[in-house]
Amino acid sequence: MRYRRFGATGVQIPVLSCGGMRYQHSWNDASPDEIPADSQANLEATIRRALEVGINHIETARGYGSSELQLGRILPQLPRAPMLVQTKVAPSASTDDFLRTFDKSMSLLGLDYVDFFSLHGINDAVTLGHALRKGGCLEAAHRLREEGRVRHVGFSTHAPTRIIVEAIESGGFAYVNLHWYYINPFNWPAVERAAARDMGVFIISPSDKGGMLYRPPSRLEELCAPLTPMAFNDLFCLARPEVHTLSIGASRPSDFDAHLAALEHYDRIAETIAPIEQRLREEMERVLGADWVATWWKGIGEPDAFPGGVNVFEIVRLWNLVKAFDLVEFGKMRYNLLGNGGHWFPGAKAGEFDETALLAALRDSPFADRIPGILREAHALLAGEEKKRMSNA
């Protein structure tokens, strides 16, 4: 395992973290007698395997169903000092509710303190306001730090870049959990702002939201050879010193193996990934056009700027990935979540829209004339059974 300094926390964190949202029994809270023995045995084997290979950062959240309960059966049995444990609680309008939820997390985990505590899901102006207002959840989290129940306070986010940057610039957080990887590089300005403040940077879901890379299409496999797409994406992220750790959402002990294989190239990342990056870029330009690849996102606003709240940016991004890399399964999964994702994944599908109003909202886009047709094609390619966020399934 390799380790990086997690910003001003000073903690040496493994470049791979054990994310806690895929090995639990249920996405809903469960009572202890509802946890099947085989589920608990699998979780415990996954944790022991993580620690065996040096992945000592164990990350979970109050919103991950039975994850905390099940971790509470194994973590207190293990030596505490080597472990770095993170949990997360959503900010709310009531600071008292926020603190009660934190207390429940700690009771379930069976720990006296957590190394990292995130305000979970600062995704829009409302959740940011719950965190930053006077007497709000960020102040409450820092009181927990002063009491010794929390070592470092951060936040997790699925927000637009501008919201992430606003949270970073508040100066109240030691680290950030955010999305940034090869197929979604748009939060790089937020990563840079975090680095300027010497914050820790934790990458959320690089393998799942990064393209369902555990089931890659053959076209992407060919383009990433001799690496797997998952290994390429790991190394792409770790090539940047501003990035400190990647969340591996393991569902079983063997799920770490592909990521450990990627680390065999750690000392020569740049030369290993350069030809793959070039092939991927050339394929996108061949299929979509160089001008489009360079500037397609310019002038595309957030969903509330468009008639019906259509998430034009995300739909066009998915269309690009389907056309260039054949990421159809991933595209369908994400597209059919639109309309059901709340502030975690806002906006609507493109089944129906007022084209005149859409074009008016796209007045600053150099490709305004093409986008309505792309939205229709994307809907035809990707629309299907509606999806829900895993925590709402």
Can you give a write-up of this model?
By secondary structure, the protein is α/β, with parallel strands linked by helices. The chain folds into two domains: 3-268, Alpha-Beta Barrel (TIM Barrel), CATH 3.20.20.100; 289-392, no CATH class. It is built from 16 helices and ten strands. The strands form two sheets. Strands 3-4-5-6-7-8-9-10 form an eight-stranded parallel beta barrel, surrounded by six helices. A two-stranded antiparallel sheet has the order 1-2. Strand 7, helix 6 (161-169) and strand 8 form a beta-alpha-beta unit. Helix 6 (161-169) packs parallel to helix 7 and helix 13 (312-325) packs across helix 16 (371-382). The protein is globular. It starts with a strand and ends in an 11-residue tail after the last helix. The model has no long low-confidence stretch (mean pLDDT 95).
Keywords:
TIM Barrel, globular, alpha/beta, 393 residues
SSE topology:
Elements: E1 3-5, E2 12-14, E3 16-19, H1 37-52, E4 57-59, H2 67-71, E5 84-89, H3 95-109, E6 114-119, H4 125-132, H5 137-146, E7 150-156, H6 161-169, E8 175-178, H7 188-196, E9 200-203, H8 218-224, H9 229-238, E10 245-248, H10 257-262, H11 269-288, H12 290-295, H13 312-325, H14 328-335, H15 355-361, H16 371-382
Parallel strand pairs: 3-4, 3-10, 4-5, 5-6, 6-7, 7-8, 8-9, 9-10
Antiparallel strand pairs: 1-2
Reading side by side through the largest sheet, how are the strands ordered? 3-4-5-6-7-8-9-10
Count of folded domains:
2
What is the overall shape?
globular
Q: Say how many strands there are.
A: 10
